[in-house]
Structure formats: structure tokens, C-alpha cells
Amino acid sequence: MLTALLHDDPRTVGPYLLLARLGGGGMGTVYLARTAGGRTVALKALHQRLAGDPALRTRFRLEADAARVIGGRHGAQVHDADPDAPRPWLATEYVLGPPLDDAVEAAGPLPEQAVRALGAALAEGLGQLHRSEVVHRDLKPSNILVSAAGPKIIDFGVARAVGEAPLTQAGAAMGTPAFMSPEQAGGGEHTAAGDVFALGGLLVFAASGHGPFGSGQPTDLLYRVRYTEADLGGVPPELVPVLSRCLAKDPARRPTTGELAAALVPGEAPRVFAEVLPDGVLRLIARRADDVWRQPPPRQAPPPPDAPPGPVTLPGAPAGPSRRRMLTMAAGGVVAGAGVAGGLWAWLGRGGGDGGGDDAAPAPKPAKPPTRLWTFAGRTPDRDGAVVLTKHGLAMPAGIVVSGVNPESGEDTWQANVSDAWRWASDGTDIYALRDRRQGRKLAVCLLDPSDGQPGKPLVELADFRGAENRNQLLCVVERTAYLVARTVSPDRWYVLALDLRSGKVRWRTQVDAANDGYLPPMLRGTVVGDRLVVSRSDAGIHFVRLTPYSLKDGKALWTLSAPYSGEPPSELVVDDRFVYLTDEAVSARKLTDGDGGWLFGNDRNAGGNTGEKRVYGAPVLHDGVLYCTEGDRGLVAIDAVTGSLNWAEKDLKGRRLNRVVPPAVGRKYVYSLDDKGLRAVEIRSRTAVWTFPTDATVLTADHERGKLYLREERATFALPLA
Predict the structure, then answer these.
(1) Burial class (CB in 10 A: 0-12, 13-18, 19+), 677
(2) What value, to the nearest 5°, has the Cα angle with vertex 464 and ends 384 and 554?
């Protein structure tokens, strides 16, 4: 939790501007700090009154050295340190994750799988320390930060090299009594086996919610650590044998860190650590990330000169939101334990709070909508009229052609005679199309010239597929491979194909069922995620969308899922490397690995009025690990894509009928959504609509690279600034 700086805290330490306090103790204070370039760190500074003690300076230097030894994978990456400064300081990565004790308090004991993954990762980290002949000596829940990428070991204030002369008097027990080893509790030598004992006790706490030797006075705890057996009540039975070995009184009977890691996770560890964490812990991780970019609490004013001495009360920071990415996810994945230079930038502009909670900024004054930057005259098709962004400019269906449009001026730059939207696709740079069905019987894929839209020489030409079939579809083009659905000449069958555009060869083809309808293609959408091609199909008159991922290696269909939808079928697949996201009466995330349920949102919520439509949640958009969609006619909701938790909900929206077909568009400051009165800009900080641009547009596209929004009405396309 962030707390306010005291009036006598320095403004800067080294090159870092101090923002808030993260914590403190007898040795020093830990601050949240930031460089002029934007890197956010946790900065530990020795108390000024202790800076003159040579022994404490030496210990501070050893702490920095030990933190460097463990590195950024298993600890907080050291960015900078100056143990020789007038006030010694150490700057490390600000880890996006709560201490283990806070995580267990908030979410309860961790599931067995999470305990195993946690313990194996910590054993690996300790093993790295021990191979460098360093022991931690104070391993406890508060010194373990749980990030989405894995646990991080911190606070090496009493760590020292094996065999090094202690900095304290002989016989003194350094550490925390509840998690000391018996030899440490007796004032003896704490070796690597002592760290294993402490890790065993820490895992007992993670699995059961209580320490291995209870609680109470330090003297009672030291006695129990040395002479009584550990309390393993509440620990899953399968974990008891290995944790009992860790907690053996005889150091020789304890496993090594390598043996412990293998015993906890005998097979392959989870690909993403966040997968085994409960939702409550993931919410805490998200809150930490959101707190970093909140306005820091104001520095405390100095007390009046005549004020009586008394305790200082530190006001708490405003409550953070339930979520917001990290997971980044990396995109696609989850970002955690990273400094601002890595994953934290992804949290900018997201907002937070549960259900539009009280931490939203005050409602701003209504603002005037922006003016059009340009307008392009051209008919927008009833379906599949998306604006496609390419390196050379924009491409969009316009009447019976595809038009190239200059994104700066809105001028028409070329036209291609590709009448059906499903017969062309972009790889983000160029436009590819199936050769016009009137130009020959062979199926062919061509590259359109970006200057005039004319098709070049076919990159691939297949004689055994029907070039004149009007339902052949180009799904997508990724890394010079075209994925399409096409119909063979003989026998009469449909296939999903992967075509190598460099060699002109078919990498693989997999048979699929034909569509029931005589016009729509059998597949509506396709996208490549990781090692899979995910395609969707929607047959006319049947309100289900069918999803099938195919292996990019050999085209094998991995699984198939049919999910209901109401109204017009999804205009595009919303998918990342973890889930496929669907919206209808609720919002659901289906695991990309097997199609099973990941999470479900909204089935138990009051979505307010729904203007007679069965579909409650509108088409979604995924941006920086957050899923945005409309909820009934109440407004927008922002849902964490990893856990399905509500980040925030739009406030104070009334008297509008929301568009459930067109996904929102997300900018840095606003989320944009269409309704019956036009385009609504919802400020992320306040979660309130601040302006409406009158339009009956049916297409909305965000161009983040160029800073523009593109909207398509029936006979015109226009651009607005994206903020």
C-alpha cells in the first residue's frame, strides 16, 4: 500500500524522485520512486541516523550484492545502488505483486497446485543463491512477493556469504522466530539447509494459512522451533511428506533445493505461473499495478511549531481496482514483476475500481466533441465493412470494390475489383486477395499493388481447387503464409489450407464441412495466435458460432466448440494466447488449450434495461489485457481478461440504446462506443461520458499508430482524433 511521504522525507534520492512510501523498518525506509525517463522503482534508503555506522553500511552493501546475485527472475532486479552515499540507497524493480502473507490473508490458503509451483520456483531461486555461496537467513511470507510471472525473493538485509564472520555478536539469533531453523534459533550457523527449513515453513503457511509453529511470544516460538514438531494441519496430504522432510530438525535430513523443486513439481512446471493463482491474488497484483500510476498521496505537512509530540498517522492510499493487465499479459500473455520500462506502461489509462467504484475521478464537465479530420465518400456494405490498417494506408470495402484511402487526407488512392470482403486480407503491410473468380478456374492468391490496387502475378495457383467458387475465403495472412477455406474440384469437398506464399506450396490442408447456406462462406473469421489458427463459422439461420483451432504445424483440428449468440454473428474473433472471448447473455472466456470454460462474467449481474434484446453484452474489444463491451443499456464495462473480474463500469448513463454489434474502440484517455445518439466518449478516469458525436455509423475502428478513429456511415467514412 502506498502512503504519503512525511514532511521531512527527501524529495529525491540519487537520480530518483520520491513519490510515496511503501514501507519501512528499523534499518531504513522503502519508497516508490521514479526517474525522469519514467522508470518506476522500489528504493530502499538507510535511515540517516544510521548512515555513520560502518557495520550497517557494510550490511547494506552485502544486501545489494545478494540482490544482484539472485537477479530479476527470482528476485527484484537491481537497477542502481550507492552504498557509499551520505545516505546509502538501493533501487530495484518495483514488483507487481503482494507479499505472500497479504495474498493468503486476502484469498485464503493457496490451492495445492499453486503451493507446488510457488515452492518449486522459490527452491530454484534459493539454489541460485546457494550456488553463489549466499544464504538468505530471513525467508518468511512477507519477504516473498507473488507476481503473475512467479514469486520474487526480497529483503537480503541479514543475508551473508557461507562461512562469513557474522556482523552481530556470537549467539545472537538473526531472523524471524516463526520461520527460523532450529540451528538458527539456537544461535548456531545457518547454512543452505536452514533456508530449506524456512522455505518448508513458508509453504506450510501458504497451504494452510498458519505458520508451522503457531504464534505467540518470540521466546515461545524459538522453543517450539527447536524442540517441537511442526503443525501441518490443513496442509494437503500429498504435500505433507515433502514438507515434513524440509522441517526436519537435523539439517542433514532436509532435501536440497534441487531435490525439493523436483519433489514439488515432478513434471513440467506451469507455463504461466498466473494460471495457478486464485482470483483474489490476481486482483491484488492488478491493484499494485494500478496504484503505481495513481496520483501519489500528498506529502504530509509539517506539524505546527507548538504542536505537542505524538504519533504520526499515515493516511492510506485510495483503494485500487480489482484488475487491469498484466497481465499482460503480455499481450497475449501476462506481464508481472516488471518495471515501468517493461510491463507497467500497459497499465496507463486503464482506470480501475470494482464496478465503477468510489476511486473513480470526479465527473468532468461536458466537453465539445471533436470535428471531422476528413470525409471519404463511398458506400459502406451492410456487413464486413471494416477499415483495415496497413503500412501503406487504409483499405475498406466501398460498393463493389475495395478502396485504398490516404489516412492523412481521406483521399481515394486506388481501387481493386474484389467485391466480397471475405476474399481479401492484410498482413498489416500489404493486401492479398483471391483472384477474381471470373479470371480463371484455378484458385490463386495475388498481392495487390499498393499504388493502384491491381493484382500482381499469382503467388500461389492451385488447379485442384475451384477458382470460380464464390464462397472461397481468405481468412488471414501471417508471416507470408495465407490461410483460406476453399472448395476442391473433385471430389466436392471443403478444406482449410495453409499456403506458403514464398514457395507456392500447400503446407497442409484439413477437410471441413460445407456451409448449409448457398451464399455465406463456411468460415466467417480466422486469426493466428501463437501456434494455432483459430477460425469461426456461423451458418445462416442457426444462432450458434462454432470455433475450431488448428495446429499451424500440421493443420490438425484441436477441438471444436459451439456457443450461442443472439442477433448478428460476431464480426471478428476476440482471442489472445489464453482465451477466446464471447459475449451474449454473459461474457465468457474459453481456454484456447481445450475450449473449456476459463471464466464467466455477468450471469449474476443486474444489467438494467435491455430494450427487448436477448443479447445483454455487446461485441467486445481486447486492449492491453482488458476486455471492453457494453452491458445492457447501462453503459460500458471493463473486465480483466485474465480473471474475468470487473475493473470498472460506466457511470450515470441513461436514456440511450447501446449498439451491441459494433465493438468499442479504446484510446489513451477515452473508450468510444456507439449508441442511438451517436459516438459516446467515456473518460477512463471518471468512467463518465463527456461528449457525444452525432452519427449513425456502423463501423468504428481505432488507429493507435496514427492517432485516429475511423467511422463509417452508409455513404461516407470519416476520421476523428483518437485521444
Answers:
(1) middle
(2) 75
CA 520 from centroid of its chain's CA atoms = 36
Tens digits of per-residue pLDDT, 588-621?
999 999 888 888 898 878 877 766 677 899 999 9
The region of weakest confidence among 25-29, 402-406, 409-413, 622-626 is 25-29
Radius of gyration of the chain (CA): 30
Cell of 142: 512477507
The helices-and-strands tally (H runs, E runs) of the chain is 9, 42
Task: For residue 282, give the H/E element and its range.
Answer: helix 279-292
Strand partners, 546: 537, 562
Catalytic residue list contains 624: no
CB atoms within 10 A of CB 171: 9
Cis? peptide before 491, omega within 30° of 0: yes
The pTM (predicted TM-score) of the whole model is 0.55
Nearest CA to 225 out of 236, 235, 216, 234 is that of 216
The predicted-structure confidence for 135-185, as pLDDT tens digits, reads as follows: 888 899 999 999 988 999 988 766 554 444 443 433 344 567 889 899 988
Which of these is catalytic: 102, 138, 195, 436?
138
DSSP category for residue 116: H
DSSP string over 575-642: E-SSEEEEESSSEEEEETTTS-EEEEESTTS-----TT-S--B---EEETTEEEEEETTTEEEEEETT
What confidence score (pLDDT) does residue 322 get?
Answer: 33
CA distance 303 to 573: 59
The 10 Å CB-count burial string (b at 16+, else e) for 99-115 is bbbbbbeebebbbeebb
Question: Which residue reads 518506476 in cell numbers?
Answer: 40
- β-strand partners of 390: 393
Q: Name the grid cell of 245.
A: 522432510
Cell reading at 126: 534459493
Model confidence at 2, pLDDT cuts 50, 70, 90, reads confident
